[in-house]
């Protein structure tokens, strides 16, 4: 019972200290990610119930900005990462601590000296403490970068998932309209059949087509539910009791797309992954340097001792009863153990990390190019839909209606034209979702996140 | 001068009266505007008081007499033809129209006809039904080299026989005939045959496939001809034939359509077929008819004396030939209960309307929006209601005083001679009970 209790006490003491430090880290993370993260995410004890700010926000129709805010406030993985900044903080505190002196007290009843007091101090530890602290502070930087990267990545995920959700809602509405068109064709065929104007075959073909299409609507419904759950998870909503609504359909893309110059350079400069790895490299470099210094440095322990009484005194022969003082130094010579193994291991780890760092730079550049390509392509396609394809299909629909009025098209062909128009609308929504996702990805790359581009929103 | 007198006098005389120019000046005009009606021959061409033929909606080719030879000029060219108000198409024809101008001469004449080809491909002219030297017959490859685009060839021959003939291209026949390279050729007898006629009309039947919204006939069509014409016009664009009650009328029917024969029917009278493009039918072989079948590639001349005044329908009796641009892909819904469908359509396509549940006769009056340059299901106003017919349909207007009549006015019905809603008392007196079952009529 005792040990856990003390551990808890020391733990609480340590946490209190560290959580203050996290509070100090949060503004820096905000600045790095250029995103507002509420203070609440690291406040108080960890609680399983949904964040009250999140619940508040979900009562309004959720737009994309709200989705990002909610995810940043509620996402548990992100909150965990914020808390984990405390780990590095704690290690930093630990690393900066100077060695404690060793105090020895002895009673020597077999001798006349009644009492001996000895204080030893590890001087090498004292010398190495600042270097160790510097290495640990780099890890705090790394943790901050990791958190900032997670903020941007969570924001991106919120946007991408939100676009997918809204697209799924729109696609469901389109699928329902297409089903309605097929139902009209079925009704027409049934009316023809009932009045003797058509064979059973005509009606059966239309009935079958209608029934087949119901599967598509059912799938579209599942897709909406799936996309909603994806967002619900991201939002960190504890219960399924929260029914929230999107604020409407995907906005149309602007006519002109402006892509900044020097995309790769900007991405490299902003990359949190690179910053984090650089900080980690610095920490490793310092640790390696320290290990090698420590290896060559003799381990010096100084001691001071005080003696009450004379060591030669006996009960019959009292040689004195006064205080005597002495001092000494222990030096452990680094002749055999020079910490080479540790230094070598750290040095190898540094080299490995360096390779990864260079590799990450390659990935960041490539990801920047890819994000730009996807954005430019998706924008071009979205505009093609908006400016050319949708109006063209609209004209087809209008002309189909005129041809139908002129009895040159059957009602089935007319409804087919409507379904083709809905197909185009479906493709347009998919492309629009792809565009907004690509745009979010591109902006995240520019903001420093390492983005693995999604395969559109389909 | 109005249209009526134009029809009465015939193209030649009317045009000369209209122009009022010197013969020389007119002759100079002629080359520049070959499609103007005849002007250098001012009197009826036929001896014995035979009236000149009238081509409703058309014209007659002018001749210039040079050393006793009648010289004419046909120009084969693309023409813009209005089939009916709201429907125009680019066709091929002669001298600005399709059919080309009616050629009209007298038995024994020598004619010299220049043919200038302004088409993008070669052409020839075949003188259908005429007996002439083989080298003048106009069959490309067989009897002559085709006339290349931009060139002028000349035909010259004697008109040995009187009769009702035709002319048409005999190169790329399928295309050129389908696009309208046809015309009539009337040769009056030197001495009038049979009873004298007061009116002599020329009507040429043709059929076209002009897809709804298109503006050029489809020369590849073998079926589904959807525009049927007399002299290049579909009703209501067909000019009515105004004749006098009790006067003898001759109508020369020709058919150079691609595929279909036309049973031409006239209401309110009976007639006899007096001639074909093969010659005169002996009186003993003439039988009374109300319908005459005019096969592809032949002419039929009918004569009659109308005894009843009025506006009489004259039309091909194939029902699909009195429709214009009837769409055949419409969903047949006669007798269907479409309430569910209507509800659904209102949601899916608010602008769409279910059609045909009660038949199609009233559609012409609806004037629903249809594609540009099409007249599908467009009726035309009649004196009682919308006339739902189109196509190969015209009106024979039998009047007491035909020369004083405006061809555009409808017949004035004497009181008590029209169909009215049945009077209940009279029905009762006559033992008519509409509440009885379907077999009531037989009791
Ligand atoms: Cu017919």
List the helices and strands and how they pair.
The complex is a heterodimer of chains A (458) and B (443).
Chain A: H1 2-33, H2 52-58, H3 64-74, H4 76-95, E1 102-106, E2 115-122, H5 123-194, H6 200-235, H7 263-270, H8 272-296, E3 299-308, E4 323-332, H9 340-405, H10 411-446
Antiparallel strand pairs in A: 1-2, 2-3, 3-4
Helix pairs in contact in A: 1-4, 1-5, 2-3, 3-5, 4-5, 5-6, 5-8, 5-10, 7-9, 8-9, 9-10
Chain B: H1 3-9, H2 11-19, H3 23-32, E1 64-66, E2 69-84, E3 87-94, E4 103-106, E5 110-117, E6 126-128, E7 152-158, E8 163-168, H4 173-178, E9 182-188, E10 199-208, E11 227-230, E12 241-244, E13 249-255, E14 262-266, E15 271-276, E16 279-280, E17 288-289, E18 291-294, E19 298-304, E20 310-316, H5 339-348, H6 363-366, E21 380-381, E22 386-387, E23 393-399, H7 424-429
Parallel strand pairs in B: 2-5, 4-9, 10-13, 12-23
Antiparallel strand pairs in B: 1-2, 2-3, 5-7, 6-8, 8-9, 10-11, 13-19, 14-18, 14-20, 15-16, 15-17, 15-19, 20-23, 21-22
Helix pairs in contact in B: 1-2
The structure holds copper (II) ion (CU).
Explained architecture:
The complex is a heterodimer of chains A (458) and B (443). Chain A is 68% helix and 7% strand. Chain A is α+β, with helices and mostly antiparallel strands. Chain A has a single domain (10-457), classed as Outer membrane efflux proteins (OEP), CATH 1.20.1600. A 4-stranded antiparallel beta sheet of chain A has the order 1-2-3-4. The radius of gyration of chain A is 36 Å and the shape is elongated. The model of chain A is unreliable at 1-16 (pLDDT under 50). By secondary structure, chain B is mainly β. Chain B has a domain at 8-41. Chain B is 12% helix and 30% strand. Chain B contains 7 helices and 23 strands. Chain B has helices spanning 3-9, 11-19, 23-32, 173-178, 339-348, 363-366, 424-429; strands at 64-66, 69-84, 87-94, 103-106, 110-117, 126-128, 152-158, 163-168, 182-188, 199-208, 227-230, 241-244, 249-255, 262-266, 271-276, 279-280, 288-289, 291-294, 298-304, 310-316, 380-381, 386-387, 393-399. In chain B, helix 1 packs across helix 2. Mean pLDDT of chain B is 87; it is low at 1-43. The structure holds copper (II) ion. Copper (II) ion is lined by residues 260, 262, 316, 318, 321, 392 of chain B. Residues 260, 262, 316, 318, 321, 392 of chain B line the site of copper (II) ion (CU).
């Amino acid at each position: 019972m005792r040990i856990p209790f003390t551990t808890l006490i020391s733990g609480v003491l340590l946490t209190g200290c560290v959580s203050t430090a996290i509070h100090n880290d949060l503004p820096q993370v905000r600045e790095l990610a250029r995103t507002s993260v509420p203070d609440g995410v690291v406040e108080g004890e960890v609680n399983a119930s949904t964040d009250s700010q999140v619940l508040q926000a979900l009562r309004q129709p959720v737009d994309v900005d709200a989705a990002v805010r909610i995810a940043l406030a509620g996402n548990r993985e992100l909150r965990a990462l914020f808390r984990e900044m405390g780990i590095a903080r704690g290690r930093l505190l630990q690393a900066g601590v100077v060695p404690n002196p060793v105090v020895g007290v002895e009673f020597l009843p077999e001798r006349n000296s009644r009492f001996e007091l000895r204080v030893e101090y590890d001087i090498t530890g004292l010398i190495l403490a600042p270097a160790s602290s510097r290495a640990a502070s780099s890890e705090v930087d790394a943790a901050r970068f990791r958190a900032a990267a997670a903020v941007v990545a969570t924001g991106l995920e919120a946007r991408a998932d939100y676009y997918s959700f809204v697209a799924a809602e729109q696609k469901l509405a389109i699928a329902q309209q297409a089903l309605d068109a097929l139902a009209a064709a079925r009704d027409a065929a049934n009316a023809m059949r009932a009045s003797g104007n058509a064979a059973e075959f005509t009606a059966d073909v239309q009935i079958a087509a209608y029934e087949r299409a119901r599967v598509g609507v059912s799938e579209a419904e599942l897709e909406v539910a799936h996309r909603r759950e994806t967002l619900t998870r991201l939002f960190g909503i504890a219960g399924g009791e929260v029914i929230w609504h999107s604020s409407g359909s995907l906005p149309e893309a602007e006519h002109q797309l402006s892509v900044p110059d020097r995309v790769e350079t900007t991405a490299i400069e902003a990359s949190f992954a690179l910053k984090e790895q650089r900080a980690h490299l610095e920490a490793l470099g310092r640790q390696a340097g320290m290990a090698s210094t420590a290896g060559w440095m003799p381990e010096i322990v100084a001691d001071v001792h005080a003696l009450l009484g004379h060591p030669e005194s006996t009960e019959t022969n009292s040689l004195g009863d006064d205080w005597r003082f002495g001092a000494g130094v222990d030096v452990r010579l680094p002749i055999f153990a020079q910490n080479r193994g540790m230094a070598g291991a750290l040095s190898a780890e540094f080299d490995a990390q360096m390779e990864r760092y260079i590799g990450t730079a390659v990935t960041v550049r490539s990801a920047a190019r890819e994000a730009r390509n996807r954005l430019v392509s998706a924008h071009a396609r979205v505009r093609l839909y908006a400016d050319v394809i949708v109006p063209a299909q609209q004209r087809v629909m209008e002309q189909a209606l005129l041809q139908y009025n002129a009895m040159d098209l059957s009602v089935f062909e007319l409804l087919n034209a409507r379904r083709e128009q809905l197909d185009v609308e479906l493709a347009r929504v998919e492309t629009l979702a792809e565009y907004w996702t690509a745009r979010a990805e591109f902006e995240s790359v520019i903001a420093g996140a390492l983005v693995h581009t999604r395969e559109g929103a389909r | 001068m109005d249209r009526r007198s134009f029809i009465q006098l015939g193209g030649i005389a009317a045009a000369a009266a209209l122009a009022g120019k010197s013969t020389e000046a007119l002759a100079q005009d002629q080359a520049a505007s070959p499609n103007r009606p005849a002007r250098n021959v001012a009197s009826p061409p036929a001896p014995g008081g035979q009236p000149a033929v009238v081509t409703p909606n058309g014209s007659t080719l002018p001749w210039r007499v040079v050393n006793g030879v009648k010289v004419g000029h046909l120009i084969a060219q693309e023409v813009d033809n209005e089939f009916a108000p709201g429907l125009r198409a680019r066709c091929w024809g002669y001298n600005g129209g399709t059919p080309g101008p009616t050629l009209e001469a007298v038995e024994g004449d020598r004619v010299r006809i220049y043919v200038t080809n302004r088409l993008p491909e070669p052409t020839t002219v075949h003188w259908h039904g005429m007996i002439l030297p083989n080298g003048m017959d106009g069959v490309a490859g067989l009897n002559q080299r085709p006339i290349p685009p931009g060139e002028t060839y000349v035909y010259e021959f004697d008109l040995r026989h009187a009769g009702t003939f035709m002319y048409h291209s005999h190169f790329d026949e399928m295309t050129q005939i389908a696009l309208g390279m046809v015309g009539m050729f009337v040769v009056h007898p030197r001495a009038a045959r049979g009873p004298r006629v007061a009116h002599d009309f020329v009507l040429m039947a043709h059929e076209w496939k002009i897809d709804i919204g298109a503006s050029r006939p489809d020369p590849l069509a073998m079926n589904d001809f959807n525009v049927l014409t007399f002299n290049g016009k579909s009703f209501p664009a067909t000019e009515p034939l105004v004749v006098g009650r009790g006067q003898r009328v001759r109508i020369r029917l020709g058919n150079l359509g691609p595929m279909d024969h036309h049973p031409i029917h006239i209401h309110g009278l009976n007639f006899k077929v007096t001639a074909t493009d093969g010659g005169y039918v002996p009186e003993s072989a003439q039988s009374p008819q109300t319908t005459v079948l005019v096969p592809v590639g032949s002419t039929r001349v009918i004569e009659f004396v109308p005894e009843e005044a009025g506006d009489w329908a004259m039309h091909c009796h194939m029902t699909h030939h009195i429709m214009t641009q009837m769409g055949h892909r419409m969903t047949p819904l006669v007798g269907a209960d479409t309430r569910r469908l209507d509800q659904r359509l209102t949601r899916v396509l608010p602008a769409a309307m279910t059609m045909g549940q009660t038949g199609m006769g009233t559609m012409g009056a609806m004037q629903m929006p249809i594609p540009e340059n099409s007249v599908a299901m467009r009726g035309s106003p009649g004196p009682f209601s919308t006339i739902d017919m189109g196509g190969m349909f015209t009106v024979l207007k039998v009047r007491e005083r035909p020369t004083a009549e405006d061809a555009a006015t409808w017949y004035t019905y004497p009181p008590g001679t029209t169909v009215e809603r049945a009077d209940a008392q009279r029905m009762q007196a006559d033992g008519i009970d509409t509440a009885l079952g379907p077999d009531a009529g037989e009791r």
